[in-house]
Amino acid sequence: MNQRARLSLLVTQIFFASLMLALFGRLFYLQVAAGPIYRDAALSIQSRDVVTPANRGFIVDSSGVPLALNKVGLAITVDRTKIDKLPDKGVSVVQDLVALLGLSFDDVWQRTRLCGELPKGQKAGCWTGSRFQPIPITNTADPQIALRIVERSDRYPGISATPLAIRSYPTTLGLNGGHVLGYVGPLTESDLSGANGRSYFRSESIGKAGLEIVYDEYLRGTPGVKTFIVDRKEAVTTTSKNTKPVAGNHLVTSLDIRLQAATEAALVAAVKRARASGFRADGGAAVVLDVRNGQVLSLASYPTFDPNAFEKGLTVQEASDLYSEKTGVPALNRALQGLYALGSTFKAVSVIAAKDAGYDLNASYACPSEVQVGTRAFQNFESKSQGTLSLKKAIAVSCDTIWYRIAYDEWLRDGGLKPKSNPNDYFFKAAEKFQMGKKTGVDLPSESSGRLANREWRKAWFSQNKDFYCNYKERSTKSQQTAFLLQLARENCLDGDKIRAGDAVNFSIGQGDTVVTPIKLAQMYAAIANGGTIWKTTIAKAIVKTDGTVVRTFKPEKLGELGVDQETIAFLHDALHEVTIAGTAAGAFAGFPVATAGKTGTAQVFGRNPNGSAKSDTSWYASFAPAKNPRYAVVMMVSQGGYGAGTSGVGVRQIYEAIFGAQGSTVKPELALFPNGKPPTTLPRISPATKPKPSILNPGKPKVIASPTPTAKAKVKR
Predict the structure, then answer these.
(1) Could you give the CA distance from residue 703 to residue 687 in angstroms, rounded to a whole number?
(2) Would you place residue 703 in the very low, low, confident or very high pLDDT band (cuts 50, 70, 90)?
(3) Which residues contact 177 (CB under 8 A, 6 or more apart)?
(4) pLDDT single digits (tens) 518-533
(5) DSSP structure string for 610-632
(6) Has residue 644 got a pLDDT over 90?
(7) Mean pLDDT calculated for residue range 270-277
(8) With a threshold of 0.85, does the pTM exceed it?
């Protein structure tokens, strides 16, 4: 064999050796290194998982009274993978089913349609989960009916009856709690895709709103999973995995069920009172805070919805009503999503601005019927002259023209339409001290940040809207081309990027483009009450295991300080107390046995309602109590509710009556919500049997109102 042949043989041997080495390496990787991955993949092909949902943890108030818990129900479900295979796609089966259950075919059929199957605008009440999940028709089926369905599987193919834990929201003392508690619902494809960074099983229900969604990772627990190995004929051969469900943890909140119920009742009464006085009163909100730590003691929004309706299954009409303008958009949490002009409640901020500008808070000032600003006369409330008043009295009777004059003079000093390079902007800076335009940080979803219409905002607004106003005639409808709107468009085109005199004076009395949420105003008045600390508003106090072990506690968090001297704070305390004894709220608080402090607000609203009527004023009352040693900040707002005192002021008094145990001009300490005026600081014992302690709402044995029964009618509460 020559040299060339030996070389060729060597190369061939090396090639085959390398090939064998690569082959053995690949086999090693598949069988050893990656073996578990492929074994799991193979197992998934020939295995079936049965998921047992975990019992969801309770949500309780600060005394341990359940606000959300679980009860046993019997669910009737539809399996789309089976009924879709029927010749008529399951129509006849569903028709027989609804006849048996006494439900509407249209509602049930819509409820079993995947949202992705339906055209845009026709998705109300659709199934947000997957077709591979059992779709619940009702969770409160009659056992006898359920038995008939199970026994007649030939007549009801794809229909099952299954016992399950139902999320329940007790209506103790008339409690609703929809906006703060939220509700649970089935998984969507987005949830299953891991878009929120969590993994789920298809059969789970998770939090969809309120506290339920914010603390879902603690509340939901860990489902149990039993994995069966099946053969080609789907016959079970063995069980490869069996894990038991782990119950979710409990959430202890700062809420008090008695105060929450009282707040909701007072808000509804305020709305009805406004309507009886001829105002539209299309919505409202009320918030109670602990001024010393920012904890939310109650929070209500109107109109509301029944959180139990989601477990029962919403009808198409109910689902549509939640977001309908005709029903007032009940899904909107006005306490932290609604944005409204502050009206005269803002004057507490204006006091700080005046002090910073060098005005004497103890001096007297003229309160004429109007103040001329350029070519426009800005009038006092109801165009009344109040003569010469001390600033304290001016706050009490809510004089506007004093603030018009101060704001206008300071605007001129800052350069007017040609502002100085470094204007003083006392009013804007006073508002910034309260962090207006920023969120309160409340642990509920979708809080709005509000809007502080200062110079920076004005420039940004102008940049976005200049084209519209400079071409207003071409871009507006004929109905929008009134003399006033045309003039407004012209002015906005010429100098919409500047703070004008009218902007400055309106700002000083809480009118114009600055808007806040009710919870933000409550945070602001809490800061005044406690001496200047801005607390993050919070509801959660602790996460507790079912055995009582504390998993996590939530400590109060400071967001900042007002940076206001105590002399000014003391002046505000005195002036706001004066409002309740000799000012605009004197009638609302006449004879009330506990000294309080507050400010009425009646904010004008521009625009018209869908029926063409002019919008009514926004009613506000912002307050704290006791006046000398504040512990609670209470704010109520009624949209289109008219006057601040008669609508919201009376409502706030009713809330204080519940807090202090006041009846008429007498305080009954045994009916006060918190002993010694201090909300609970220790964590309660958690039990589904815990009942609320006596209060104005339940002076004797606690009253329990049964949950509403399923109905095809809308569950919107107005």
Answers:
(1) 18
(2) very low
(3) 67, 169, 260, 264, 307
(4) 999 999 999 999 999 9
(5) TTSPBPPPEEEEEEEESSSS--E
(6) yes
(7) 97
(8) no
Helix/strand/coil for 653: helix
Phi and psi, residue 553, nearest 5°: -115, 150
38: left (phi over 0), alpha (psi -120 to 50) or beta: alpha
Q: Where are the domains of the chain?
A: 48-250, 338-451+504-516, 455-498
Q: Is the torsion defined by CA of 108, 112, 117, 120 positive or negative?
A: positive
The mean pLDDT value for 78-87 works out to 87
Distance in angstroms (rounded) separating the CA atoms of residues 253 and 154: 49
Main-chain dihedrals φ then ψ at residue 478, nearest 5 degrees: -60, -40
**Region for 414 from its dihedrals, namely left if φ exceeds 0, alpha if ψ lies in -120 to 50, beta otherwise:** alpha
With a CB cutoff of 8 Å and minimum separation 6, the contacts of 116 are 189
pLDDT number for residue 284: 98
- CA torsion sign for 633, 638, 644, 648 is negative
Q: Which fold has domain 338-451+504-516?
A: Beta-lactamase (3.40.710)
Amino acid at 222: T
Amino acid identity at 425: D
Q: What 8-state DSSP symbol labels residue 685?
A: P
| CATH superfamily for domain 48-250 | Penicillin-binding protein 2a (Domain 2) (3.90.1310.10)
Helices (H), 209-346: 210-214, 216-219, 257-276, 309-312, 316-321
- What gap in Å lies between CA 56 and CA 249, rounded to an integer? 7
Whole-angstrom Cα Rg for the chain: 32
Q: Is 684 exposed, middle or buried (0-12, 13-18, 19+ CB in 10 A)?
A: middle
At 136, list the tokens: 């619940």
Place of tokens 């039993």: 226
Range 316-323, long-range pairs (CB < 8 A, 24+ positions):
316/106, 316/107, 316/110, 316/111, 316/124, 316/125, 317/107, 317/712, 317/713, 317/714, 318/125, 318/713, 318/714, 318/715, 318/716, 319/124, 319/125, 320/124, 320/125, 321/714, 321/716, 322/716
Under a CB-based contact definition with an 8 Å cutoff, are residues 305 and 475 in contact? no
CA atoms within 13 A on the CB side of 323: 7
- CA–CA dist 365, 390 (Å, integer): 6
The mean predicted confidence, pLDDT, of the chain is: 88
